[in-house]
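Long-time lurker, finally posting.

We've been working with Bacterioferritin (Thiocapsa marina 5811) and I want a structural starting point before designing mutants. I don't trust myself to interpret raw outputs, so I'm hoping someone here can both generate the structure tokens and explain anything notable. Sequence follows.
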Amino acid sequence: MRHARIHPRTLGYLGRALSLELSAVQQYMTQASLAEAWGLPEAAVRLREETVEEMQHAERIIQRMLVLGVAPNGSHLRPAGVARNLVDLLRQDAVLEAEIVALYREAVIFCRRIGDRENGDFFEALLNEESAHAREIEDWLASLGIRRYREPDERAYF
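Top reply, 14 upvotes:
Generated this for you. Predicted structure of Bacterioferritin:
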């Protein structure tokens, strides 16, 4: 394990990222079970695939933290989003993914600003993957006839 000097704010980004990724794992896993209970096997399979993808992100963050010599700590696990239909589940997923993308974007900008290329590259790779994932959710919603989701305050998540 390498004990590198790392900016405390970068450690904060890693901790928040781990919490969000583990929250996404819990959310997608719960939603896959709901979709299956609703008789939507294709949606259940797709949500289980999302679960695995988010687990891989969490694992990469844990590995990164260990390389940096810090103990992984996902300290804030959010409750899983549940709803009465697939569209509402996907809307919740869009909100969570938008938050994850925003966190990674902020982390990349910060790391670049302080000259931390290694962690900036790490966050950028996650940003690219999560941005693609957010677009996949947008496409899924579009396939269900939902073009764009907006929160009551009118912030666009796509």
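Before you design anything, note these points.
Residues 151-158 have pLDDT under 50 and may be disordered.
The two ends are 39 Å apart (CA to CA).
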